[in-house]
Amino acid sequence: MQTPYSHIAILGAGESGMGAAQLASKLGVQVFLSEYGSLSAEDKGKLDGWGVRYEEGGHTEAEILKAEAIIKSPGIPHKATIVQKVKDSGLPLMGEVDWASRHTDAAIVAVTGSNGKTTTATLCHHIISGEKDTVLAGNIGLSLGRALAERMDAGSGDPEVIVLEVSSFQLDDAHLFEPH
Q1: Which residues does residue 32 pair with via DSSP β-bridges, in sequence order?
Q2: Nearest to 170 by CA among 139, 134, 149
Q3: Does pTM surpass 0.90?
Q4: Residue 62, SS3?
Q5: CB crowding 15-33: b at 16 or more within 10 Å, else e
Q6: Domain residue spans in the chain?
Q7: What does the pLDDT look like over 111-142, one tens digit per residue?
Q8: What value does the mean pLDDT take over residues 86-98?
Q9: Percentage of residues of the chain with pLDDT beyond 90
Q10: Where are the strands (E) in 12-119, listed by range?
Q11: Which residues are within 8 A (CB) of 9 and not within 5 positions of it... i.e. 6 or more apart?
């Protein structure tokens, strides 16, 4: 699937950031991942294997602002200095759900709310998967980006339906996300 960006920067190396990096790598996008904390040896190995450049222990503004778009992990506050610098730059800033959902033609059933998201998403997945090729992803554990990248690795292509559990923090950065 085509992507409008050839170079992205990712802020944060949690499940969302790593999933976005994995998907971008599969799409042939140049990636720079910036983690304020430290990266595990396992995560470094994955990033190296995907050909993703990365840093840890801070955010190098000049390197991040070289990208065409920035993907922000939901755990990074909007008031963080680097997020403010990105906003001031005018570069597109989006969450992993926004990024990954642009790279699938699957129908997306998004489940959100205060209570019962995991139960509802799991039940929807169980019911739909009886009839259609269905993936369960999102805040339930496996990021959407990772789920799509793993399908690409397996040669499975897009599922027919993605049931996506979405937290309020993920929705904060989902400006163009359109479940359908």
Answers
A1: 9, 53
A2: 139
A3: yes
A4: helix
A5: bbbbbbbbbbbbbebbbbb
A6: 7-98, 101-172
A7: 999 899 999 999 999 999 999 999 999 999 89
A8: 97
A9: 89
A10: 30-35, 53-56, 69-72, 93-95, 107-111
A11: 31, 32, 33, 34, 63, 64, 65, 66, 67, 69, 70, 71
Which amino acid is it at 10? I
Q: Per the structure block, which two tokens stand in for 140?
A: 């339930």
Helices (H) and strands (E) in the chain, counts: 8, 8
What pLDDT does residue 114 have? 86
Tokens read off for 111: 């489940």
**How does DSSP assign 38-51, residue by residue?**
---HHHHHHHHHHT
> Does the domain at residues 7-98 carry the CATH identifier 3.40.50.720?
yes
Strands 107-111 and 93-95 come out as unpaired
Residues 6+ away with beta carbon under 8 Å from 49: none
To 10 degrees, what angle do helices 15-26 and 41-50 make? 20
